[in-house]
Amino acid sequence: MPSPVPAYAPDAAGRLAALSDVTASDRALRRFLHGLPGVDAVGLEARAAGLGTRSIKTTAKAYAIDLAISMIDLTTLEGADTPGKVRALCAKGIQPDPTDRTTPKVAAICVYPDMVATAKEALGDSGIHVASVATAFPAGRTALPVKLADTADAVAAGADEIDMVIDRGAFLSGRYLEVFEEIRAVKQACVRADKSVAHLKVIFENGELATYDNIRRCSWLAMLAGADFIKTSTGKVAVNATPPNTLLMLEAVRDFRATVGVQVGVKPAGGIRTSKDAIKYLVMVNETLGDDWLSPDWFRFGASSLLNDLLMQRQKLSTGRYSGPDYVTVD
């Protein structure tokens, strides 16, 4: 994709100056976002389908399974969540397979803000991050001060990462600067009193954005606003992560780094339940972005049930036997 804006100066001041030009007004931001190349839907879907046919075997498959485990944001986002359930999930994240201590730990435990302190205590010095949804997840239908208070509460409780939802109504109405400024405000709310900062993941809810062009525009909008990660979905609607919409976001972060010099992570979430699915996504990352993004620092899976299937496939590779779901804990 050709660079949609001039190349930025190598120094931070030059980059910020160029970004401020793009986001100086709603009109300028609209001109920029609608100036991005249109998405070739047929080509995008064909490429995603083609990458999904790659065959990964033996040692490469074992490596991919362990990598996928290490990239999971192990998630519980239910109204019936309890401290006991969160502590049990944290224990599973630290040691996913108690029978095999070589199993990698997950990247993060993702919970509602009121469960952050419980998760933080349970995880201790394990190195696993605590992620928290915020900004009136999953709909995002509340006033900005409430969203900022929601974020600040989670950060104060110890959240290492914040998963915010954008105002899809504002975006679909073309109020791009409003969405941009809201992301910037939430980003500022991620700064603690000691100046340490929680990473910000920005959730689009691709199933509600409706078109590939909107997903590309939303990707650039969020990255310009300072997103550390861009995330497909909440997992709470009919259409969540799909190979085509995730591939489109991977291409967006690739082009953003090439243009701006800033690397941003990607998190597909919702509907990724099997090892086969996860490996397809890892192939897409490798083929589109290369080794730079093949790390939990830059790619995550938002999942609750995926870990169990990865563990079963891992056991099969190591023992030659398929253990079945009764041999892994129920999340």
TrEMBL record:
Enzyme class label: lyase
EC number: 4.1.2.4
GO biological process, one term: deoxyribonucleotide catabolic process
Keyword Chaperone belongs to the record: no
A single cellular component GO annotation: cytoplasm
Signal peptide extent: none
Record keyword Lyase present: yes
Keywords recorded for this protein, A-Z: Lyase, Schiff base
GO molecular function: deoxyribose-phosphate aldolase activity
The protein's annotated pathway: Carbohydrate degradation; 2-deoxy-D-ribose 1-phosphate degradation; D-glyceraldehyde 3-phosphate and acetaldehyde from 2-deoxy-alpha-D-ribose 1-phosphate: step 2/2
Catalyzed reactions per annotation: 2-deoxy-D-ribose 5-phosphate = D-glyceraldehyde 3-phosphate + acetaldehyde
The family this protein is said to belong to: Belongs to the DeoC/FbaB aldolase family. DeoC type 2 subfamily.
NCBIfam families xref list: deoC
Name this protein carries in UniProt: Deoxyribose-phosphate aldolase
